[in-house]
Amino acid sequence: MSIERKPVRRGGIKSAGYDRSARVLEIELDNGSVIQHTGVGDEIARRFLSSGSPASYYRDNIQDEFTQRRVK
Fold first, then answer.
1. What superkingdom heads the lineage (predicted)?
2. Is residue 29 assigned to a domain?
3. How many domains does the chain contain in total?
4. Is 47 left (phi over 0), alpha (psi -120 to 50) or beta?
5. 1 within a domain of the structure (yes/no)
6. 15, 51 contact by CB (below 8 A)
7. Does 37 reside within a domain?
8. What value, to the nearest 5°, has the Cα angle with vertex 4 and ends 9 and 18?
């Protein structure tokens, strides 16, 4: 699965992207690792991607709420 990510460059997050049909949010961290979260709804993904503080939104609403797997 290839998800197009867009630059975020804030709070340790380098880029992020969302696949609406698969409901997968993909996040690339500054250290080069890539994490995919499954089961993420459109609204959560939209709020994260448009957040002024994406790292805080990620920690508070996504990190421990959705199944994750490291892909890189």
1. Bacteria
2. yes
3. 1
4. alpha
5. no
6. no
7. yes
8. 85
pLDDT of residue 1: 67
Nearest C-alpha neighbor of 18 from the set 10, 26, 28? 26
Residues in the chain: 72
Q: Is residue 30 part of a domain?
A: yes
- Residue range of the domain that includes 61: 6-70
**What's the Cα-to-Cα distance from 61 to each of 19, 45, 47, 48, 64, rounded to whole Å?**
18, 10, 10, 9, 7
Q: Which residues contact 52 (CB under 8 A, 6 or more apart)?
A: none
Instruction: State the pTM of this model.
Output: 0.92
Six-digit token string for 71: 């892909």
